[in-house]
Amino acid sequence: MFETHHSLPWNAVTLQPGSLKKRAELNRAYMLSLKSSHLLQNHYGEAGLWNPPQQPTDCHGGWESPTSQLRGHFLGHWLSAAARLFASTGDTEIKGKADFIVAELARCQQEMGGEWIGSIPEKYLDWIARGKRIWAPQYTLHKTLMGLYDMYEIAQNEQALDILIHWANWFHRWTGQFSREQMDDILDVETGGMLEVWANLYGVTNKQEHLDLIRRYDRRRLFDRLLAGEDVLTYMHANTTIPEVHGAARAWEVTGEQRWRDIVEAYWRLAVTDRGYFCTGGQTSDEMWCPPHQLGGQLGPENQEHCTVYNLMRLANYLFRWTGDVVYADYYERNFYNGILAQQNAQTGMVAYYLPLETGGTKVWGTPTNDFWCCHGTLVQAQASHTRDIYFTNDEGLLVSQYIPSRVQWHHDGSEVSVTLESKAHDVYALKASREQPRQTSHPEYTLSVNCEQPTEYTLTLRLPWWLADEPTITINGERQQVPHTPSSYYSIRRTWHNDKLTILLPKALQIVPLPGASDMMAFMDGPIVLAGLCDDASMLYGSKDQPETLLAPYHERQYAAWQPDSYETRNQPHTTRFLPLCDIRDERYTVYFPITE
């Protein structure tokens, strides 16, 4: 694999107790609550193993209904999430359920002749070839293919690979009958991550037939225009193309052919760098790419589809591993708080398909068994993957990329190294005990405990985030380091580590962020977190755009023994509006962008 930064094994990183771990546990409980027979209902139906006289009342509905053309798409996501949960936590209960489902898929495959294992009929693909209108069958099928691959690669289920290889034989034979022009027509109908599946499989088998599938799923009508520098994304369905570029990324890793990497880098420039994004990090409206830097007319009830957030973060992971460029880690962080967390209900665990950015918007939450939007699938995967992007290794040592309370165990030069990252609470009683005057300090502060089996020399690198408002304070065993105020950069410490403790304080400040293409509309951010006003209008705010503290002040800043830095309210305004982190809002009406005048 071609990379400068390496992901750690899944079981090397665990979450520390806290709100994020609670969200992950809520997601696990949801996954286990779904009956295996209902997860498999559409595969059973295709294989003739589930044929009741009428649909059961508790059958999965929505996009998983036996009458939906996308039926069966969720199961693949479920398997991918289950593989991640088992690999990262050793959860044998979820592993047993997932292994049973894989075994049942093998039974369905045998019933259908030994190759096909789709939750939809083969004729759906023939309809594409004939030009008949059909709702994204390859997108649907790739979910199961990817779930099988993840069960093999991440959860070490050999049966899943056997099913996948036999199913790939069907696709190799089916695609082999078409000319290049005919195949290009087929690829114009949403294929999801089919290219990534075949690249993954080729990375395992190194077989010519799987390389053939990579070649056949090369979507030249998109990729060649990307390489030519054309804007092929504006008002195009966003989540059609992002998984296709995942495929290009994986194809570069398994073939080493430069064209694939050039496609990925050209896509990122066009989709993110040269397009801009909302303060949340999202870039879409009604599932379509917004015009570059012209987002003023795009605010509405259907901004920021959850799938696009998760998939662009996955693409950022590819690019970060290849380059180590801090811009990808910064992008990941912005979308993590204001997408992945903002679009999961912290009480029910359910997903919001969109994140409305309109005035007075509300989040619409899915139900456990009656919707199964595409975003239900990316929800369970995202909430099972939190540990994957916190730490990376490189030739010099360990990199802390995201400040998420967690623990990593890692081997370096024969020594076992344990690093624990904790968020430091600002405890009023602790301040009194030290005879300090209690005062609010809302800056994120962390402790990093480093314990090595034996003294070990390596470089510990810390990301200095894009929102850094002043010189950070970093101490090692009480000794303060000289750290420059350089947002969006790294600070590296080379030393012999043994049993050491770092404290890290990252100053943040309120900031006002204009809406690209509508400079009179402003949003407020508290460090990496978008704030939203609890109101159903966007009343004019009066104050300095360069001094957000003239507009917002902390609200209810201390609760009993702890400071509460995340809540604000307007000051010196005709009407008082309370502001909360967008990721904490559940059912309230809210507004993100406001007009501001001096």
TrEMBL record:
It holds the Pfam family Glyco_hydro127M. Keywords: Hydrolase. Residues 398-502 form the Non-reducing end beta-L-arabinofuranosidase-like GH127 middle domain. GO terms for molecular function: hydrolase activity. The keyword Transport does not apply. Residues 12-386 form the Non-reducing end beta-L-arabinofuranosidase-like GH127 catalytic domain. The keyword Secreted does not apply. PANTHER family: PROLINE-TRNA LIGASE (DUF1680) (PTHR31151). This is Glycosyl hydrolase.
